[in-house]
Specification:
Helix content of chain A: 55-70%
Order of helices and strands of chain A: HHHHH
CATH class of the largest domain in chain B: Alpha Beta
CATH architecture of chain A: Orthogonal Bundle
CATH architecture of the largest domain in chain B: 3-Layer(aba) Sandwich
Low-confidence stretches of chain A: none
Number of helices of chain A: 5
Strand content of chain B: 15-25%
Largest sheet of chain B: 7 strands, mixed
CATH topology of chain A: Non-ribosomal Peptide Synthetase Peptidyl Carrier Protein, Chain A
Radius of gyration of chain B: 21 Å
Number of strands of chain A: 0
Mean pLDDT of chain B: 97
Distance between the termini of chain A: 11 Å
Radius of gyration of chain A: 11 Å
Structural class of chain B: alpha/beta
Mean pLDDT of chain A: 92
Number of domains of chain A: 1
Helix content of chain B: 25-40%
CATH class of chain A: Mainly Alpha
Strand content of chain A: under 5%
Number of helices of chain B: 13
Oligomer: heterodimer
Low-confidence stretches of chain B: none
Shape of chain B: globular
Chain lengths: 81, 393
């Protein structure tokens, strides 16, 4: 699974957290640009975990700010499995 | 120069919006305390319905006398940490009393409940371990987990099947600690302990329950969630606080593990802070005695909780949980409505907690009530009547 394949799905999963319909891309800073608070980010990460059936420890979340960062982590986990 | 405080501009703006709507709900100042359920605020008498003073024990004469005696005999403070000059005989006595009350072998007392969570979680788990924490955990649990350096996995609230799935996914070595709460502070619901204990047959882990809101409240003996569920043997570690049912300040961790006392030399929030003051420890000891001798307080708390729960639900208000609890959170549609309704309640003489995201689960806005054994039925009826007039209208 490639990052390019993962990014659109992450953008879909961000839908409920993007009420203003901002254009999302790999470089979108999730908490800053979508104005999601800390708990909201963790809730969103749970959706990503369940969709891709992987674990994303909370320790990783603080280091994955952009959609691209997250896609890279998801790809690494999926390809490891 | 980058102004360090500029990053908090949005918080300042949000706070100002609340101030502009009336009273600062996050800075209410009690000018005088009349009783566990009454205060004078700005010259007006207010019914307190958001204090976590579950047993209504803060004005108990025997408890106050114990505090005064400790002040006279041991002074105002310990001026040192527990591992230096800050261990007094009374700290040890409280630890023995709590262990006996809980039916556990070991207990360690902390200066605050917050530090109990920081200390216990960071002492139990380290960088090679994994902590599984409920998504609705209190901030002190999140902070303790972060301090531990352990891998942190968050599972869906009260969902043992979700925890099972996450544990099955994880193949890392190291110890595993699961953290639950007896009563969750915002919505008032409790963990389905049997479901989580059952998982111990499938996965290797140790289980910790934070009974901050359930110590003194749940179970035939008031020991907390394990006591209520009849599953104390399935719980490896218990955490509690003195700032709720005990009516003082401080916290504890307890368990049966033979190495438990070694945690004293592995928990930075225990080692590197001053120990609790003599008056606080003495009042905690005396309050614990009252709790043990007067189980009728617990019954009064539950009778009052049932009355408020039924009264608010009869108004058509949506509560945080469908099961009666001493924490009764009324859901509001949005933050502005919450602020307006909180102000209306306060103006009508009732104080509750205003709770808004990110301090709440699922971005909920809440008018959070907590019930006390010291409330009278008249108090409860008055609170319901005010909610009817200014919230449910």
């Amino acid at each position: 699974m490639t990052e390019a394949e993962i990014i659109p799905k992450i953008c879909d999963l961000l839908g409920p957290y993007n009420p203003e319909g901002k254009v999302l891309a790999a470089e979108t800073d999730i908490p800053a640009e979508l104005n999601i608070d800390s708990v909201g980010v963790l809730d969103f990460i749970m959706e990503v975990e369940d969709y891709f059936d992987i674990e994303i420890p909370m320790n990783v979340v603080s280091e994955t700010r952009t959609v691209g960062d997250l896609a890279r982590y998801v790809a690494a986990q999926k390809n490891k499995a | 120069m980058v102004d360090l405080l500029e990053k908090h501009r949005a918080i300042a703006d949000r706070f100002q919006r609340m101030i502009d709507m009336g009273v600062n709900a996050l800075g209410v100042t009690n000018d005088q305390m009349i009783s566990p359920t009454r205060a004078i605020v700005g010259g007006r008498e207010i019914i307190l319905a958001g204090t976590n003073n579950y047993m209504g024990i803060t004005f108990e004469p025997s408890v106050i006398a114990a505090g005064k005696k400790a002040l006279d005999e041991f002074g105002t403070g310990t001026t040192g940490s527990r591992i230096a000059n800050g261990s007094f005989a009374m700290h040890k006595e409280l630890e023995r009393s709590l262990a006996k009350f809980l039916g556990l072998k070991h207990c360690i007392v902390f200066t605050t409940g917050y530090q109990a969570n920081l200390g216990m979680l960071s002492g139990l788990a380290g960088p090679n371990d994994t902590i599984y924490l409920d998504a609705d955990s209190h901030s002190s649990i999140y902070d303790g987990c972060t301090l531990s350096g352990a891998k942190l996995v968050r599972f869906r609230h009260n969902d043992a099947a979700d925890l099972d799935k996450r544990m099955a996914r994880d193949d890392t070595a190291g110890g595993r600690l699961v953290v639950l709460e007896g009563i969750y502070s915002m919505l008032g619901d409790r963990a389905p302990l049997a479901d989580f204990v059952a998982l111990k047959k499938k996965h290797d882990f140790q289980l910790l329950v934070d009974d901050a809101h359930s110590f003194g409240v749940l179970g035939p003996n008031g020991r907390g969630l394990g006591d209520e569920a009849g599953l104390e043997d399935g719980v490896d570690f218990v955490i509690g606080t003195f700032s709720k049912s005990i009516g003082a300040i401080g916290g504890f961790g307890a368990g049966n593990h033979p190495l438990f006392d070694t945690l004293r030399y592995a928990m930075r929030p225990y080692m590197f802070t001053a120990s609790a003051s003599p008056a606080s420890i003495a009042t905690s000891i005396a309050a614990l005695e009252v709790l043990a001798k007067e189980p009728e307080r617990r019954q009064r708390l539950w009778d009052n909780s049932q009355r408020l729960f039924d009264g608010l639900r009869a108004l058509g208000l949506e509560t945080g949980t469908d099961v009666v609890s001493p924490v009764i959170a009324v859901k509001m549609p949005d933050e502005l409505t919450t602020i307006a309704k909180w102000n209306a309640l306060f103006e009508a003489g009732v104080y509750v907690n205003m709770a808004v995201p990110p301090g709440t689960p699922n971005r909920l806005c809440l008018l959070r009530c907590s019930v006390s054994a010291a409330h009278s039925f008249d108090d409860i009826d008055r609170i319901v009547e005010v909610f009817k007039r200014v919230v449910a209208n």
